[in-house]
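F.,

This is the one I mentioned.
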C-alpha cells in the first residue's frame, strides 16, 4: 500500500522547544508517526493527545544551550519523558520497552517530514470531550498498541 509521504529526501529535520534553548536535528527516515491518546501523554502534555514521531537515540542530535538542559521525568516503570528545564516544553519519550528508540513530539519539528500521522494509538483512553474525526485507523487497546511498537524495526 503506498504511503502518503510528504517529504522523501534525506535532509535532516530540525526542531526546538518553545524557548529555543533545546534544539534537535533528526536524521531521516523516521519509523512512525501517530497520535497517542494514552493517559500518560494526556497528563504529561496537558492535552487530549500527543502526536509522536518515531526515531532513534543515535539519529537525534540534541543541542542544549548553557541556561537549560533536557530534564528526564520517569513517567512510568518503563518510560521517561524529556522536557526543556527552562520553558517546560515536553519534547521526547523513551522507554525500556523500545530500547534505542527516541520519540519526538511532532509539533516541535519544523515543516514537513517523511510521513503523515498513520493512526490513533490507545484510543480507548481518549477523553470524551475530544473526538478525533479523520480517516486514520484507531488502535483501541493497550495490548494492540504495545504489540505494534514491538513490530517497529530497530533502527538503522
Ligand atoms: Zn525551552
Ligand atoms: Zn501516549
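My design for it:
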Amino acid at each position: 500500500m503506498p504511503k502518503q509521504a510528504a517529504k522523501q529526501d534525506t535532509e535532516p529535520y530540525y526542531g526546538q522547544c518553545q524557548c529555543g534553548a533545546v534544539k534537535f536535528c533528526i536524521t531521516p527516515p523516521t519509523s512512525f508517526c501517530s497520535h497517542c491518546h494514552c493517559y500518560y501523554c494526556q497528563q504529561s502534555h496537558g492535552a487530549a493527545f500527543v502526536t509522536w514521531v518515531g526515531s532513534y537515540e543515535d539519529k537525534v542530535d540534541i543541542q542544549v544551550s548553557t541556561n537549560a538542559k533536557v530534564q528526564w521525568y520517569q513517567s512510568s516503570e518503563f518510560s521517561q519523558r524529556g522536557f526543556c528545564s527552562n520553558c517546560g516544553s515536553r519534547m521526547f519519550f523513551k522507554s525500556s520497552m523500545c530500547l534505542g528508540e527516541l520519540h519526538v513530539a511532532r509539533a516541535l519539528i519544523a515543516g514537513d517530514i517523511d510521513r503523515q500521522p498513520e493512526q490513533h494509538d490507545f484510543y480507548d483512553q481518549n477523553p470524551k470531550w475530544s473526538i478525533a474525526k479523520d480517516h486514520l485507523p484507531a488502535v483501541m487497546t493497550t495490548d494492540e498498541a504495545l504489540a505494534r511498537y514491538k513490530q517497529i524495526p530497530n533502527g538503522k
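The longest strand covers residues 50-56.

Talk soon.
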